[in-house]
Write a structure and sequence with these properties.
It contains five helices and 17 strands. By secondary structure, the chain is an alpha+beta fold. The radius of gyration is 18 Å and the shape is globular.
Length: 279
């Protein structure tokens, strides 16, 4: 992996704003002064392509949830990089026990389960349409099709920097408004882990080596993200935060997802990007 000085990285990634830096300080936030980054990756969203996320509620003890995962695999193959799947383990089906020793619940996932209230699993909310009301898998592609051709209202620039010696991940997200929008908006950062081999009940059959994908591990900047101070065309903002990866999380399969969404009670996700933390 290529060593990149933080000063060089900041110059290279093309940060779009220095007007404001929100730097929340949760308990696992770490100083990044003097770090030499092993990896630096960057992506900027297209001004003409709206990316779509799905937040799927699932659990290891939900026997029908693998059907949802298979539908997400189908949608991923169909919509490719325009579609960003997120798997949230929450609710009673995610409680460890009854053959499922792992606890994949998160503070954020529990909060979304309460706030959005899926009535049955599997359930998912596509870019939090319809006030983030989760639906069954038959509705997911219908919701995707309803917004797939929309012109984006905001642009995202997402950068990940990673230092392996300290397992420090720094994420920088830049927003630029492409139109003027009323209301309030937040920027949200998720850390996902892919390809986790663990127990899953599938159609009544225990699967000890099931491959869990796109699993939410942490809401990096809090369960509801941080506010964007203004949403007038041309306005720019930067959010910058660093965390230490849990020793159990495989860096090679970790992904950062960033998205901008409307405040309650709307919640709609306007634009999103995803980026691995290492090459």
């Amino acid at each position: 992996m290529k060593k990149i000085l933080i000063i060089m990285a900041a110059a290279t990634i093309g940060l779009t704003s220095c007007d404001k830096i929100d730097d929340p300080t949760p308990n696992d936030t770490v100083s990044t002064e003097g770090i030499i980054w092993d990896d630096s990756l960057h992506i900027t969203s297209s001004p003409t392509v709206r990316k779509i996320i799905i937040e799927e509620f699932t659990g290891q003890l939900c026997t029908y949830c693998p059907d949802g995962a298979r539908e997400i695999d189908r949608l991923s193959a169909l919509y490719n990089s325009q579609f960003i799947p997120i798997s949230i383990h929450a609710g009673g089906f995610a409680n460890p026990g009854n053959g499922a020793p792992n606890d994949f619940r998160t503070t954020a996932g529990d909060a979304y389960n309460i706030a959005f209230g899926p009535s049955g699993f599997p359930a998912g909310t596509v870019s939090r349409l319809n006030n983030a009301a989760p639906t069954g898998l038959a509705q997911w592609e219908i919701d995707i099709q309803s917004i797939i051709s929309d012109v984006p209202k905001v642009s995202l620039g997402l950068t990940t920097l990673y230092d392996d010696s300290t397992r420090t991940l720094k994420t920088v997200v830049n927003t630029e408004w492409l139109s003027t929008e009323a209301g309030t908006y937040n920027v949200q950062l998720y850390l996902l882990q892919d390809s986790i081999v663990a127990y899953q009940l599938d159609g009544g059959t225990p699967m000890p080596n099931y491959v869990h994908r796109h699993m939410l591990r942490k809401a990096i900047n809090g369960s509801w993200g941080v506010p964007i101070p203004s949403s007038t065309i041309g306005d720019m903002d930067t959010t910058d935060i660093a965390i230490t990866l849990d020793p159990a999380w495989d860096k090679d399969h970790c992904i950062v997802v960033a998205f901008v969404y409307a405040g309650s009670p709307n919640y709609e996700v306007l634009q999103a990007e995803e980026l691995h933390i290492v090459h």
